[in-house]
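Supplementary Methods S3. Complex input for the sodium ion-bound model.
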Amino acid sequence: EVGMSDNPRGALVVLEGLDRSGKTSQASGLVSYLEGQGLSAELWRFPDRNTCVGQMISSYLSNKSELDDRTIHLLFSANRWEKRTLMESKLKSGTTLIVDRYSYSGVAFSSAKGLDIEWCKSPEKGLLAPDLVAYLDIPPQKAAERGGYGGERYEQLEFQKKVAKQYEMLHDLTWKNVDACLPMEEVTKQLREIVMDCVANCRKGKPLSE
Ligand code: DGP
Ligand code: NA
Ligand code: NA
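Predicted complex, serialized as structure tokens:
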């Protein structure tokens, strides 16, 4: 293929959306699809609850511990920082990462509590920038109707409405909305298209940035 570099890097693809928007099942479907196309791909998610920091976050989310809003914000961010080196080496070795939530969740959820949005963005600076943010767009009311929430700290309609408003302020050049109310197969199809475009651009040499 013309223009393809010798050592094509993987793409950093982030799925964002409200709780119950369908991110998690779409993310794993995308990884299988990419692998079926002969590409190296991995499913990642944040928070990564397996690390020490992740366990503190998990305990907070399940209401087993209380933490000040800024403290938990910085822990979510630290949880992304502790995976940064591995993330960079995976991408450089050619593996595409499909990441279920990233800094956008960090800023949207914490600023929805009333924290200053610029303060919320600060600790995210220097993390790797996604090549694509696919936002699974669903009205909060619709998401709440989808078989109920799991009972974690943020899974309440009034709070999710605030998060949706904050997400709207985070649209940037890498952001693409996908209507999450479409039939699931249609959502899958649209995601495959935008992800394959993104992967192709990265293989052609689009640089990785912060
Ligand atoms: P999940 O495992 O994807 O269901 O995420 C757990 C919850 O934590 C979900 O309500 C979204 C929220 N969340 C994810 N990342 C962050 C973050 O960086 N900061 C804050 N405040 N909340 C987050
Ligand atoms: Na959740
Ligand atoms: Na999820």
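The two ends are 28 Å apart (CA to CA). Residues 19, 150, 152, 155 surround sodium ion (ligand 2) (CB under 6 Å).
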